[in-house]
Batch of 4 targets.
Target 1
Amino acid sequence: MYSTLLTHLEKGIFTITINRPEKLNALNREVMNDLDKAFDEVYDNNEIRSVIITGAGPKSFVAGADITEFSGLNKQQGIELAKKGQDVFLKIENSPKPVVAAVNGFALGGGCELAMACHFRIASEQAKFGQPEVNLGLIPGYGGTQRLTMLVGKGKAMEMILSSLTINAAEALQSGLVNYVVPAEELLSKTISILELINTKAPVAVSQSIASVNAFFTGDGYPAEINNFGKCFETDDVKEGIKAFVEKRKPNFTGK
Ligand code: COA
């Protein structure tokens, strides 16, 4: 179905593996189009409850946008490329279902930006993060200047972007870029165990939580939270959640 992605749906968890290991999973146009389509599937398929994005092979999550596609671009083409990248990554960030990056190696340039567009990140001990675009005479264009600043703060983001500083998994954990660092062989099992827990929660409440946290970054977080809190009362699940609490039993959420 996708020429550059492997996908697998099991127990509601949709795993998307970017599959160009010979090019360290660099994001060419085809990968970006496939990711765009894969997220249509995420939005539309009711069997998908949550998503993992990872990279094929032992070495790389994604080593950046495909540099070979940059040669000869003019200003307008550069703007269009960045716009397309930002649109796809915003679709991931605004996914109503949780999306976690399982970062199994290099997450550089567009790879770091892709990981940051996910709702949170788990890294293997081999992971490395950086925005090395200035080495190419470029800047991050798929949201990196914004999301890195939000995640690690202005000073660290400036240092990483201006100097092309690459940080290892332990430094990424310390900077708040990732939530956990685990041995490579435990990366997927750790990610799955967190998503299995999230998948037991009320789906509409999970979606509205994502939308409300994301609204912090667009500046209308408080009114968005009020509205999204209200929307939860339209669900059967809120009735079930409250009833189950009173009856001292586990809730049985249906997503309605
Ligand atoms: N775009 C296109 N191709 C890439 C790529 C990218 N971002 N990153 C790696 N590749 C390709 C290499 O050209 C090489 O292809 P080849 O075998 O046909 O020559 C292949 O992937 C393997 O990469 P290689 O450089 O040989 O691996 P390495 O272990 O020596 O180095 C990196 C790994 C990540 C340090 C190095 O590949 C690199 O610096 N990549 C670019 C990172 C970057 O600047 N990303 C931001 C882009 S905006």
Target 2
Amino acid sequence: MTTKVAAYPFQIQSFEQYKIVYEESIKYPEKFWATVATNFQWKKPWDKVLEWNFKEPKVEWFQGAELNITENCLDRHLEKLGDKPAIIWEPNNPNESIRTFTYTQLFQQVCLFAQVLQNNGVKKGDRVCIYMGMIPELTIAILACARIGAIHSVIFGGFSAQSIADRVNDAQSTFVITCDGAFRGGKDIALKAVIDEALNENQFVKKIIVYSRTKISVSMKNGRDVWWDNEMKIATDQFKKKETNYFPAATMDAEDPLFILYTSGSTGKPKGVVHTCAGYMVWVTYTFVNVFQYQPKQIHFCTADIGWVTGHSYIIYGPLCAGATSLMFEGIPTWPNAGRFWDIIDKHQVNIFYTAPTAIRSLMGFGLEPLKEKNLSSLKILGTVGEPINEEAWHWYDENIGKKKCPIVDTWWQTETGGTMISNMAGITPSKPSWATLPMPGVELLLVDENGKEVSEKDEHGMLKGNLCIKSPWPGMLRTTYGDHERCRKNYFSTYENLYFTGDGALKDENGFFRITGRVDDVLNVSGHRIGTAEVENAINRHLGVVESAVVGYPHEIKGQGIYAFVVYNGNQLNEKETRNDIVLVVNKIIGSFAKPNKIQFVLGLPKTRSGKIMRRILRKIAMGEVENLGDISTLLEPSVVAAIAKGRI
Ligand code: PRX
């Protein structure tokens, strides 16, 4: 069923059209999304487009429909786009060969690996943990899970054994797909060894499938661990015998879970955000095609890691559903030198380049030398994601990478939203440096004050300022947090009645443009990585000498935010340097090195209210260097600790 209805174009063509479409999408969401959804392949059409309430919350899109997202990513393109590159893979080491998978080749690999999964006992609904480097097999593994209806839970390669164990246990994953190791810049990272440590006490994981990437020696547990290549050979023989290269795509209900992705919140325990099949597919494809104004033949390069939501949505599902060519990069921007991204753009004639502000700021630091003799003229569109982009970085990106010819899309969204919620559409709607600008069709935003009342008073610059909420459902929104629906309700739907609360603060200007100012909860954004302060505190507190700790963010020139830890230590003889190193090691071990504190200050006590609550507001100010004007401290249990902390600031 692939009929196109002209009433709402799948790809918006002008600002005027955006305004009309936006208005219609809010007035008639069911009609609007039903029309958009006709651009996909369904096994069975829906009975009802939308049913929802934010109280429980219950959100169901395309009720009663059946589909498989991989038929939309792969099968339906085979006839016309079979020979078109679906994935171009650029290895970490620029001297190693590029690998390209056409849509036909990717389809075949996914079918084979789906067979491998089935041979190893994976069934629809099983949770499969994937912990791999950025290699094509990661994409194949993800799509093969989706093909047989298993729920993938990808864990970022930077997470430690303890973090993996927590996530595997929470999702009750019974299968793991990993690599011997991963290459990242000059480093070889041992992934299988980390998995072994993570699963040391695990009784439930039945099989671990290991792809050999770095060829380091690994231990393989008899009966549990199998090699990817051997299993693929077995599947190939089976296919040959059956004279087929086809693995049937499982029939999925629109609301069957597609994947779980863990993300940090205000509490110490990460949440397993659950996305479902149909709504997520429609949302990521629609936003991909519109935000980037994707044109056939363009090459899209999203630099995110597939371990985070950006990689899920805009390396894999969005581009592939749209029949695009997606470039996947194994390495890091500064290895073997700081011109690596520009080399890749030049070499592959990249048209759309989508990266994080932290990467731009870090590359800015190397000056213009790495750009010399790099031909970036293929670029048409630039994008940013993950954190607010400061104006200086925006202009550097615009002038030196886009040569002032490429629209920059500043895309605001979250793991929970599945895809972009606020962004300009490249060349179609206006842009404004460091403003995400306008909501996508179907996204109804609201700024509220502390009490949930819509803000109406403008500040001295004519702006509205408040906490960013969303009023009604969009197809790509999270449906639950795995295994704990009440947690989902509490986290997102209970702060303000009948609203989804994003956790972000925002400004709105006279044109209705939005600027995201950052998190208003206890969540940090370090180099675009989302980290809960409570998670870091829990890790620091595992150090035997630590009595308690409080973690806050402070502005960091490259990372956006840095982590500042105030630590109360019980040792009599404190060797500060050694203890700092030890604490960093503990955080590396419990979470991963990306969460390590940048500054650790030892203090005698933390500023607490009489009820024992840590006054983070004061610590935040001290971390930012505002030691003079700390506000009212009279309600503190021991106001004197504040002066001592301010004095000892690093
Ligand atoms: O604070 C916002 C920030 O990143 C948070 C979401 O993080 P995560 O779930 O890891 O997803 C990141 C990739 C989508 C948001 O709550 N954020 C994301 N994009 C922007 C942003 N802040 C400002 N501008 C953005 N474009």
Target 3
Amino acid sequence: MAILKIARMGHPVLLQPAKPVEDPTSPEIAQLVDDMLDTLEDAGGIGLAAPQVHVSKRVVIFFIPKGRSDGEGQPLTVMVNPEIEPLGDEKDLDWEACLSVPDLMGKVPRYTNIKYSWTNLEGERQERTASGFHARAVQHECDHLDGFLYPMRMTDMTQLGFAEEMGRYVREDDDAEPVE
Ligand code: NI
């Protein structure tokens, strides 16, 4: 078990395109994923990408809590070499936060509906469709593999602020429960 240090915005590893993993079944990747799971549990987010722990490889872990998005949520999912395909042009604007951008939250446009695929640790290619919060979380995490942090995807910087302050001022009809 190892809790890894999380890179924060400003560290160059977060801006690099991460390298594809040649062998998703290798012990090295299994170890990386184990350490990422420990790190995510300790930090308390819903997802983590390898560049966030200073490893520039295309590996993401995430889960969707019950009650968010498709209701039943999604179990913890380990994705190696994930790919996203938007289904249509429709986008939603909603809150996000990130373990690499501590204390802040912002409203980010993301595709509403996507199809995504990945290789699991057994080397099998998997595929799912997603919408809403689930689709948003996958887009946020996979963006880390291409060197994008959520503020770089924002179109209205008046919607970026400290979560503590935003929590006091966002309208009651605006669900300010961010993706992390
Ligand atoms: Ni993030």
Target 4
Amino acid sequence: MEGVGGLHHVTCIAADPQENLDFYAGVLGMRLVKRSVNQDDPGTYHLFYADAEGRPGTDLTFFPWPYLPPMREGVGLAVEVALAIPQGSVSYWAGRLARYGVTVRGAQTRFGERCLLLSDPHGLALALVEVQDRPFAPWAESAVPVDFQVRGLHGARIWEASLTRTERFLTQVLGFRRVAEEDGWVRFAAGAGGSGCWLDVYERPLAESGSWGVGGVHHLAWRVRDEAHQAQLRERVAWAGVHPTPAIDRFWFKSVYFREPGGVLFELATDGPGFAVDEDPGQLGTSLVLPPWLQPYRERIEARLPVLRYPPVLDPVAGSG
Ligand code: ZN
């Protein structure tokens, strides 16, 4: 039985969409590969940042919900997203983040890899982790030179009330392997392992449950090859007593959602068809794209959404070069 591959995408909650866009497409230099709306709440953008081609495994997405309270850290929630950066680029990134006034929370070595810890403008905890080079599509128009560009998702960290319960589900149902432990974090690998496949779990039996909010992670989506693979895994998930949704057509991929036994919202997302299904690959992200069933409401939807300035215009912090 083939388990999930690595991360497909991670979806988080932001506040103001322009600030979100300025940070991810501007400061971090990722490509806005899709500008769409939340399919269940079309008055809200859904912004997707990835490598130049929007490959599965490179994609960090946001729902800007400025009226939500801040995320409450706790169990049953992802507490950090790690992005892969090239070997030797931590100092470049430390300089760039300082230039744009980004709060860096520190530097660390985790599981043998150097990383920089920071928060995005709305409080989302991020780690930039140096990795051996991995395949990605460079974005020629990025403000970040190709040699330093973000390579994609590296992993995610979650807090759980019971490690045993979540471990059983990860390994027996989704095909993860327990591979390492450091400072209380237990590392699991999906698929072949490596950058993009890590899930780190910290057991906090006495902590309160976390809750969604600005600066929080909404869900972690894991790769499945195709619809057949997704259906197989969906059946296993249902068998394990967790209640998956039916497969939902997200147009750029098909999705099944469920909460793992500890409460973290997971998704199984197919690798295809991908973001170029409805836009010229050269034009990704430049205009609002709606799934076919929302097309009849385009005018009304566009009227409710704030106007976004893209590409972003960045102002370095006064006094820095
Ligand atoms: Zn998703």
